[in-house]
């Protein structure tokens, strides 16, 4: 019999839930369906996660940690390239999360997740090497990060423009924020 680690079981549950959230939407997925998709007894699923919202939060945390790791690698770029890549990474990764179909998830859960994301991004950016005149100095602000994330979210939800057009618009908005002309 193969030796399966707790981490493998947990990953399997999260990945199966992710597939179901994408296919059916958060509201139409329950713990029984997740257990069935994973070929696990429902009791095993409950041993790892007390409810589907905990699975969803784990899914978001894993997804955002992937994004954070990409952002951390931007430190080696010059300031302008870093900003452009930061916007691109955030936009692309947030677009990929749109498929999770979160239309009816508890807003308190998402609000807590947003605070975690905003603070984490601000912390990563603030840790970048930079000189005193670098525009990155302004980015430590959680308010600035929240504004960027809000703009991206609005574009993802409401824009029918291309990725390139949306990234250009985001670049203009960030430039205006940075120059205090907004």
TrEMBL record:
<keyword id="KW-0238">DNA-binding</keyword>
<feature type="domain" description="HTH tetR-type">
    <location>
        <begin position="7"/>
        <end position="67"/>
    </location>
</feature>
<dbReference type="Pfam" id="PF00440">
    <property type="entry name" value="TetR_N"/>
</dbReference>
<protein>
    <submittedName>
        <fullName>TetR/AcrR family transcriptional regulator</fullName>
    </submittedName>
</protein>
<dbReference type="GO" id="GO:0003677">
    <property type="term" value="F:DNA binding"/>
</dbReference>
<feature type="DNA-binding region" description="H-T-H motif">
    <location>
        <begin position="30"/>
        <end position="49"/>
    </location>
</feature>
<dbReference type="InterPro" id="IPR009057">
    <property type="entry name" value="Homeodomain-like_sf"/>
</dbReference>
<dbReference type="InterPro" id="IPR001647">
    <property type="entry name" value="HTH_TetR"/>
</dbReference>
<dbReference type="InterPro" id="IPR050624">
    <property type="entry name" value="HTH-type_Tx_Regulator"/>
</dbReference>
